[in-house]
Specification:
Number of domains: 1
Strand order of the largest sheet: 2-3-5-1-4
Structural class: alpha+beta
Strand content: 25-35%
Shape: globular
Number of helices: 3
Distance between the termini: 41 Å
């Protein structure tokens, strides 16, 4: 799992990460929103495109942590032959001064 932080608007960076993954020939498999704190993206992409993806995410405003950069640097540079692509995930934490995003949960009768 990759991990990063950003100060960009969470709505904009979500679209930017999607565009970055798709722009290198990958696809988003799923994502999970954690209020306005973080989002986790699960995606797949050709294994030889991870460097391109990292560059695009940095350009978009994502700062990957040291462990994520070390994992990237240790990856083989040649493509791995998998028809379904290489699975990966990104946990993106939002740095902001907004209050917690709260949702009213309706009462369930019974």
């Amino acid at each position: 799992m990759l991990a990063g932080v950003t100060r960009k608007n969470r709505h904009q960076i979500t679209a930017d990460v999607n565009d970055a993954v798709m722009g290198v020939g990958g696809w988003i498999k799923s994502h999970t929103l954690f209020s306005n704190i973080a989002t986790t993206f699960h995606f797949a992409l050709p294994s030889d495109r991870m460097s391109m993806l990292r560059e695009r995410m940095v350009e978009a405003g994502v700062r990957l942590d040291e462990e994520s950069n070390a994992k990237h640097d240790a990856m083989p540079k040649e493509p791995v032959s998998r028809s379904d692509g290489m699975a990966a995930s990104l946990n993106l934490t939002f740095i902001h001064t907004e209050p917690d995003l709260r949702r009213d949960v309706p009462r369930v009768p019974g």
